[in-house]
Every structure is written in C-alpha cells, then in structure tokens.
Amino acid sequence: MAGERTTTLNEAARAVQVWAYPLVFAQRVRLNFTQPLDPNAKRPLNSAGAPLNAFGHQRRLSDPTLTVGVAPNVDTLYSVAWLDVRHNDFTLRFPDFGPRYASFQLALPDTSTPITISASAPGERLPVVSIAGGPDRLEVTEDEVRLRTWWRYVMVVGRILVEPEASDDALDATHRLQDAIELRRLPVSDAPPPTGDLSLARLSRQAETTEPEAFARALRQVLDDADPALVDEPLQRTLTRSRLLDNPSPPESADGLRHGLQDIRAHVRGLGRPANGWAINDTGTDFGGDHLLRAAVAHSQIFINPVAEALYPVCEVDSNRDLLDGSVHDYRLTFEAGSLPPARAFWSLTAYHAKGLLVANETGRYAIGDRTPRLTYRPDGSLTLEISAARPDTTANWLPVPAGPFRLMLRLYRPATTEWDPPPVIPKPMRKMP
C-alpha cells in the first residue's frame, strides 16, 4: 500500500509540474524584470527590466550576458512593462513608427497572448490600448484595443526593429521612439496593493522547479495572483493527490517534479509539426488544454507571439537525427532559390546554447537573416549558411555556435504561410579550431 501511495503521489506531482511549469516560469520572468527587492536598481543596457507598472527599455540588442527569460531575439529592441491590473487601470498610446516594424504583445501569466498589436502596412498608426481587471474580454476596433482579465498581471512586450550593426545614431532614433511610448496608470483603490511573497525573488530557477518546498512557495503565489477559474475540479484533485501544497511538502514528490521536467524537455523536440528535423509550432499560443505543449513552449521560447505575428521553428537535430553539437560537426543550411523563409516583415536564424541562452563568440554575431550586411547569395538565388564553432574561410554567411550542444531557432515575422518547411541542417566534417 505504501508503494501504491508513493506511485500515486509521484504521478500527481509529475502532472502538476507539467501544468504549473509555465505559470511558475512566467512568475520568475516577472520577478527578474521587476526586481521587487530593489525595483529601482540600475539595469544593464541590454535589459528591459523596470519596476512594476512602468516600462523598461532595452537600449542595446540582446547578447550572451542577458539571462532573463529564454531565447531572446537579436532583431529588435524590447520595451517591457509588467502591469498590476487587479489594482490599476492602464492606457497605452504609441508614437508614429513610420515604416519601421514595431509590435506590442499583451501576454498573461499563463503564457497565453490574447493579442499582439502591429501595423498591417508601413506608416499605419497603432491603436490606443486600455488594460484593466475584470471579466475576461477582448474588444478590438480600428482605433482602440480593450483588454480585461481576472489575472493580476499583464505583460506588455514591445519589439522595435533595428538593423544589424546599427550605428549609434540609428539606435538613438529607436530610443526616442521607445521614450515616446505613453503609459498612464489610474489606481482603482487608495489602499496599497499587497506585495506578495517577496522572498520568492531570492529563489533560484532550479530550486523552484525541482525542490518541493520551493516549488510549493512559488505555486502558492501563482495561485494567489491567478484568474480564479484557473483551477478546475479535476486539477484540484490532482493538486491534492500530489500534496505539493502541503506544509511541508513531502520530499518523495521531488521524483514526480523531476519526471515532469523530463517530460517537458523531451517534448521540446516534438513541438507541433515535425519537418526535416525542425519542430514547428503552427498553433502558436493556442494551447487549449494541452498542458505539455504549453510547458514545452515555455521551456524553449516563453511568451512567443501568436502565429499570425511570428512563427518560430526550432531545430535540435541534424539530417541524421543526431543532436546538434558544435564539438562534433560543422553544419550547413541551404535555402534553395524561391524557398527562402516566407516572412512579410523579416526573418532571422539564431543560435542558442541547449539551455536557450545566446552563444558568446569572437564576432559578436548571434543571428543571421535577410537583413544581415554582406550576406552572400549564389548566382541561382539560393542561400547557404555556415553553422560552426570554428571560423570558416569566409564569414559573410557564418553563424557561430558553441563547441558543444546547441539549438537553432528561425523567426518569421508576419509569416506569409504556416505550411513552409525549413530545410534540414546538414552535418559535415568539422573544421579544426585555431
């Protein structure tokens, strides 16, 4: 009987890990951005962190020193605000971005995205946005977007395109656009809002995903801040069986948390539709009741856009189905003429360490795409990218990767279709490191 109880507890903890992982990770992202223990601390230039209810503006493109979240892009400067809509109403107004790509994603702490706002044509003005607490509702007109939610927090993620190797003058122009974003806050009560469990800010990411006590502390705060409808009766029964919210949590549930984390990591390679070694999540943020899909997306690319705004194929294996590893092979990726990534705005290919962080390299190049200076096409219009840890003879089409495991992510902003398949990543004999 004791063995049966342990098995039931482990299975329940495993299921709770899969369900709660995106929620706990999203909370970690918020804590990392807002730094509640020292909200006005000076941030590095590549951070978009800021106190709660204020915009933080990234002034320098992401690089390997940025460890907030996972899989940052290096195409746009981020502007990020975490808003407490349980205690405030907000209005957002945007400047004229002209022909420059700019989008603003409204995301919830369950990692879903009700809407991303961007211009459908160059020079089109973005609508006014109002965000407040209340029954879940999204209203969209040509001039206004109104979002209501029972979740305590809403994250606004702005992405403003900058050119690779942009000059200081070009960055300054983007900074002026960031500074012209107008956020107005109207408190709905004179009483100060509760601060929550500030000690969570001291927890490590590893602890809150593997240690029952830390996981329980993080999950309790998630539930305090959540839409009351988040936990239905079947889920409540699973939570009860897992005993993860008991005080103290049983140490045996650590096995269940570990197995749940293994399930999530394994599913990353099967995100959505498989194609030539790539995993293509062509449902975007429409997770429905697929908790494992939501968790795997959070693990590899948390807070992605809806698929109408961006598509994110991920590759971890080569054409032989072997894991990508820069200490074992060099690689080549060829887009045939007429089969370049079908993006109406822009596309890029980014390399990450297996854990989703950018790869430090001698050139400072972390992505390559249609706007990369000096990119070289073949006479027939095809494009071959060299992917390796060692510098090739010519570097125009080189994407550096680590001398170890890595993953690739394509980004197609405003994809023309979701049915396009990226070509396979082809291994080739490894060039000797200098």
Structure description:
- There is one protein chain.
- The chain is of the alpha+beta class.
- It has three domains: 2-26 and 197-267, no CATH class; 37-187, Immunoglobulin-like, CATH 2.60.40; 274-428, Jelly Rolls.
- It is built from seven helices and 21 strands.
- The protein has helices at 2-34, 168-179, 205-210, 212-225, 233-242, 253-268, 291-301, and strands spanning 55-57, 76-84, 88-93, 102-107, 115-118, 128-133, 137-140, 144-149, 153-161, 182-187, 273-275, 278-280, 310-311, 314-315, 330-335, 343-353, 367-369, 383-388, 398-400, 406-415, 426-428.
- The strands form four sheets. Strands 11, 12, 13, 14, 16, 17 and 20 form a seven-stranded antiparallel β-sheet that branches. A five-stranded antiparallel β-sheet has the order 1-2-9-4-5, with helices on both faces. Strands 7-8-6-3-10 form a five-stranded mixed β-sheet, with no helix packed on it.
- Strand 4 and strand 5 form a beta hairpin.
- Helix 1 (2-34) crosses helix 6.
Write the layout of secondary structure elements.
Elements: H1 2-34, E1 55-57, E2 76-84, E3 88-93, E4 102-107, E5 115-118, E6 128-133, E7 137-140, E8 144-149, E9 153-161, H2 168-179, E10 182-187, H3 205-210, H4 212-225, H5 233-242, H6 253-268, E11 273-275, E12 278-280, H7 291-301, E13 310-311, E14 314-315, E15 330-335, E16 343-353, E17 367-369, E18 383-388, E19 398-400, E20 406-415, E21 426-428
Parallel strand pairs: 6-8, 18-19
Antiparallel strand pairs: 1-2, 2-9, 3-6, 3-10, 4-5, 4-9, 7-8, 11-12, 12-14, 13-20, 14-20, 15-18, 15-21, 16-17, 16-20
Helix pairs in contact: 1-4, 1-5, 1-6, 1-7, 6-7
